[in-house]
Design goal:
Keywords: Cell membrane, GTP-binding, Hydrolase, Lipoprotein, Magnesium, Membrane, Metal-binding, Myristate, Nucleotide-binding, Palmitate, Transducer. This protein is mostly helical. It contains three helices and no strands.
C-alpha cells in the first residue's frame, strides 16, 4: 500500500472538499434566514403583516404592485367606512355634526 493517491482519487477528493465547502457556506447562509409562520383565521391580517414587512424591510412595492393593490385598498376603505356608518346607526351613535347624517340609499 502506498501513501499516494491516483489522479482519479485525487479528483474525487477535491470534488468532495468542494462539495463540503459549498454545504458549509449554504448552511451559514440558511442560518441567517428568518422564517415566520403566520397563523390565523380569514381576514385576520396575515397578508397585511406580510405587506408591511415588505414595505419596511425591502424596497417597498413595485409600480405593478401599486397598480394591483390600489383598487383593493380603496374597496377595503369604502367597505370599512360603510360598516362603521351602519354600526353607528344600529348602536345609536350620533355624528358630532348633525349635518353629517347618513343620506345614502342604505340609510
Amino acid at each position: 500500500m502506498g501513501c499516494t493517491l491516483s489522479a482519479e482519487e485525487r479528483a474525487a477528493l477535491d470534488r468532495s472538499k468542494a462539495i463540503e465547502k459549498n454545504l458549509k457556506e449554504d448552511g451559514l447562509v440558511a442560518a441567517k434566514d428568518v422564517k415566520l409562520l403566520l397563523l390565523g383565521g380569514g381576514e385576520s391580517g396575515k397578508s397585511t403583516i406580510v405587506k408591511q414587512m415588505k414595505i419596511i424591510h425591502e424596497d417597498g412595492f413595485s409600480g405593478d404592485d401599486v397598480k394591483q393593490y390600489k383598487p383593493v385598498v380603496y374597496s377595503n376603505t369604502i367597505q370599512s367606512l360603510a360598516a362603521i356608518l351602519r354600526a353607528m346607526d344600529s348602536l345609536g351613535i350620533e355624528f358630532g355634526d348633525k349635518d353629517r347624517k347618513v343620506t345614502g340609499p342604505d340609510s
